[in-house]
Amino acid sequence: MTITLSQQAFDELFHEMVEPSQHPDPDDELDVVYKYPRRLGQGYWRRIELRQGLELIVGNVQMRTRMIIIQPEQEHELLEYHFHFSGEHHDKYRTVNGGEYSFLGSGLDPKQTSYCSDQNSFLEISIYMQPKLLYSFAANPEGQLPQALQPWIRPSHQTYYCRCGTATPAMRTVAKQIIQCPYQGITKRLYLEGKALELMGLLVAQEIEIKDGNNHLHTLKPDVVERIYHARDILLKRLNNPPSFMELSRAVGLNDYLLKQGFRQVFGTTAFNYLHHYRLEQARELLETGDLKVSEIANIVGFVSHSYFATAFKKKFGLCPKQYQMQQKKSFQR
């Protein structure tokens, strides 16, 4: 079974069905565990407000149904760090698996679709920080952030900064210490606040190393990043006739190895996996209009085999294209 929800509908459903189930720490009323809606899965979210502007959430959920959330364009105010012990997250711009992390800055959160498999069992920690808290730690006397961190804070009309990567051993150690925190009360709060800031500190250190060029495995020079974005644009413009990887590397002036590794670093997945999911996202949007046949949509987004398109679409969204189109028509008629 697949449930397709708008972001607003998901938020409303979640707030209706989720009830604070317990305070695991009797000495901390800001430490609350919420049961996950049974209609969607089994598990919990644990939310701890560590201080004003800093929040920790631990999620441990086994999904029962495949879920698709359609998110509108909106302002993204907080800095977010997500560490995934297990499970996976997919949306238009990110694919994050167990042992990996994603970081999102403030700015514009573009319209996109995220989805979660009914076989997905995930354990993750998330840290949410207000930008002003970052400034209190990292800004110089003139109120400016280090150059390496300035992309983290963007205006509301500019797409937020996003970076995904494999967690370092130090990150994994701190994340595990958060999950296994042995304390209660004020000791617990001080311990977890310290660990949350330590994780952010490790991320800051990595960011500075990347920008300074000290991390040879992860560093991408600005002109290389521009070429990688150009490669992405070429792929998206040529949905029906994408270039081979060698053609793409020649078109942007990068060797195939650097383009392959750099594309994964910038976008969190391979170039052609990115293209594959983008095609399916475009197909979903066209199916929602209801004006075109499924075969026409498959051709428009570049699938030569209609049966392969149907299989790939069902794998991603849980429904065959025609079923999805009919579902959208019924939803619109309501």
UniProtKB/TrEMBL annotation:
The keyword Cell inner membrane is annotated on this UniProt entry: no
The answer, when asked if Lyase is one of the entry's keywords, is no
The organism sits in which domain of life? Bacteria
Which InterPro entries does the record cross-reference, listed alphabetically? Homeodomain-like_sf, HTH_AraC, PchR_regulatory_protein, Tscrpt_reg_AraC-type_HTH
Under Gene Ontology molecular function, one entry of this record is: sequence-specific DNA binding
In terms of PANTHER family, this protein maps to: REGULATORY PROTEIN PCHR
Keyword annotations of the record: DNA-binding, Transcription, Transcription regulation
Which segments constitute the HTH araC/xylS-type domain? 229-327
The root-end lineage is: Bacteria, Bacillati, Cyanobacteriota, Cyanophyceae, Nostocales
What is the protein named?
A: AraC family transcriptional regulator
Q: Which Pfam families match?
A: HTH_18
